[in-house]
Amino acid sequence: MMRKRYISLLAIALGAFLATSCVMYHPMNVDIPLLEEQGDLRIDASASMSLPLLSQPALNATVSYAPLPFVAVQAAGNITDGGNYSYRGAIGFYTPFRHSVLEAYFGYGHGHGDYTSSENLPHHTAEGPYNLLFNQLNYGWNNIGSSSVDCGLGVRTGIMRPDLSYTRWDSEGTVTDQDAFDSPCFLLEPQLMVRFGGEHIKLSLNLAYSLLSGWPTENSHFNYERFSLGAGVNYRF
User: Fold this and answer.
1) CB within 10 Å: which end of the chain, N or C, has fewer?
2) Number of folded domains in the chain?
3) Which domain holds residue 201?
4) In this structure, what CATH number is given to the domain that contains residue 108?
């Protein structure tokens, strides 16, 4: 009964995937796994939307594994309804304490943003890839007290290098405006996570915030969202 309820909630969240994309980047809702011992494996699948307008719906997936004592690996990816995508891989370590867990990851990410205002002229389009070198520090608690509630905080920092272009056409197909952006940006992304449910399967909620220092903001053709709220299902093997 509990498992069916989780699946129904996820299906409702996935229904939001039919909205329209219009931004180049939004924070990825990566799971904060809080691994505790060798052999720990967590898989998280979620749907997220940008706040406050509930736009830019995305599907997210994260796999986290502890192949050795104190060693962790993680792979994550997402895709939006507009065809934007990103993926990341990282290696790091975990340190379990008596009541909490500390994790640190170091990795590489790649993504692509793309949007077109209309299929018909006149219209404008922006597109391009970006690469990311990052590190992330997580701290949290599994099964707080006698409950089955997990909570954690993650802080991701890194350097992003985009290669974006913008073009506008008039009603006759003549290019009237062009722009480009390829300067490195400093990324800061804190994230909050709460999980609750049973021993192995739990409902996960997370809120992420993104700040890109160096990204064009005033009158920019390359918009990005700052907040992303996600809900999904997390399974611990």
Assistant:
1) N
2) 1
3) 2-236
4) 2.40.128.90
